[in-house]
Amino acid sequence: MTEKLSKTDAPVKQAAVPMVKAEGVHKSYGSVEVLKGIDLEVKQGEVFCLIGPSGSGKSTFLRCINHLEKINAGRLYVDGELVGYRQKGDKLYELKDSEVALKRRDIGMVFQRFNLFPHMTAVDNVMEAPIQVRGKGRAEAKERAMALLERVGLGDKAGNYPSQLSGGQQQRVAIARALAMDPKLMLFDEPTSALDPELVGDVLDVMRDLAESGMTMVVVTHEMGFAREVGDSLVFMDGGVVVESGNPRDVLTDPQHERTKAFLSKVL
Amino acid sequence: MTVDIDKTTGPADTPPAGPEAIKAIPVRHYGRYVSAVVALALFGAVVYAFSQGKINWDAIPDYFFDDRVLEGVGKTLLLTVLSMAIGIVGGILLAVMRLSRNPVTSTIAWFYIWFFRGTPVLVQLVVWFNLGLVFEYINLGPVYKDEWSDFMTPFLTVLLGLGLNEAAYMAEICRAGLLAVDEGQTEAAHALGMSHSKTLRRIVIPQAMRVIVPPTGNEVINMLKTTSLVSVVQYSELFRVAQDIGQTSGAPAEMLFLAAAWYLLLTSVFSVGQYYLERYYARGSSRQLPPTPWQKVRANMLSLGRPKGGMA
Questions:
Q1: Does residue A176 contact residue A154 with C-beta atoms inside 8 Å?
Q2: ipTM of model
Q3: Interface residues of chain B, partner chain A, Cβ below 8 Å
Q4: Which has more pLDDT, B120 or B297?
Q5: Is residue B132's pLDDT more than 80?
Q6: Do A101 and B193 touch (CB under 8 A)?
Q7: Average pLDDT of chain A?
Q8: Of A58, B50, B150, B260, which sees the most CB atoms within 10 A?
Q9: Contact A173/A154 with Cβ under 8 angstroms?
Q10: A178: distance to nearest CA of chain B, Å?
Q11: Cβ contacts (< 8 Å) between A98 and chain B: which residues?
Q12: What residues in A contact B192, CB-CB < 8 Å?
């Protein structure tokens, strides 16, 4: 099961292998079952939106994809490789921390609360992982970081500390930071939920731009407009299961399931 | 819109009249004058009592820069710095061990802290000094072999005694610091593919320092004074030197005052260093760094030059 290890190929190259594949994924915290068997597939180059009420397990599922959470049952694959485990015959072996870290390099993640490193300037935040993890030189990393900050519209804020930036600016730095690792997959965990309404647009613009560049994105969001406009697929989750899935324009305008209808009538 | 409101202004009785500056009589704080006078009087009484006592004050400046005293000060400083270094390095190590998911390391750390925090440092010092009773020789195979008493000089005894004890306290301080860093930071670093150790070194510890530095400054000052305990194991640092001189020169009490003055001087110097260290680790956490005392002085000088702007 070791086809192509951690190469940052351009997406869409291997259209046959789904970027993310979940088969009966279960996750529980103690006796509370948060995910009750999730099956889904994210294709290469696709923008995949996860919506649903809070507590539906959508964020948890996202965190399982880069193994920030361990799943209890089922199988989860990223780019054809099992997440967190190695399979030999019919036995599963847990991966070492260093092997998990190796895989996470290729998966970018953007958090609801940004989680920028507060003791570093914006540009240092973006440079940190390329230097520390990929072993790039400072000059090269800095040049790339500046280009990325430029791309998210923050070239002039490179020397600012996160506390000197607005929420929307912080989130865009966080996106640049994730992109600096040249990920093949980007995970967004409610990236605009902690933002003032007027700052949401800037972040969504960056994400739209990213989607147009062909990045595979899994987006947990409450921004139905974004899902409808940019999303290629959409899944509505509730109570730890996938209730409904399909093309976002179809699901959002003409939901089939009662639960989906009820949810959408409240948020739209 | 430059409304000049004095800090001590009470509720303004003149209604806000557009852009006109408020000119109000500030509240008078008579209690402050009274308490200042009382405090000064008490302080003066204490000083007078001491000056009339049977103390030969002239002996203090005579011996203040005595070679033996200076050597004692040097040893006290050296001991403080080295044992704190052991304490800080050991403390970070123990804190990381205690928070580790590995049950063996966390148990070892717990046990270490339990033991060294649970016994008086004075007892530990004496035990270290007498450890030759247990280990007659120190034998590292072909590398090193010697009698314990030759290996364990008084200096090494007190250094280990103080340092290892300090490590236990520093461990708890560091643990508090590490726990104070938001979990999202670790997650973000892990999500970027950083290893545990890199995450700790680059992300968590620098942020933990903000929490760690103030109590550590406290520990340094404590350590400086705790070094006086090592006089019991024949190590001649400041306090012991002061006692020795006191006995030979016939001015024992005076030499104790001398030692106290030196300790006070040294702790004051450390406090200044701590201020700048805290300022360094505050970067990024507050929008504006607090000004250094020097910057404050300069700002005050500048504002004095201008006619406007609040004096004092």
A1: yes
A2: 0.90
A3: 182, 184-185, 187-196, 198, 202-203, 206-207, 281, 283-287
A4: B120
A5: no
A6: yes
A7: 91
A8: A58
A9: yes
A10: 7
A11: 195
A12: 104-105, 128-129, 133, 177-178, 181
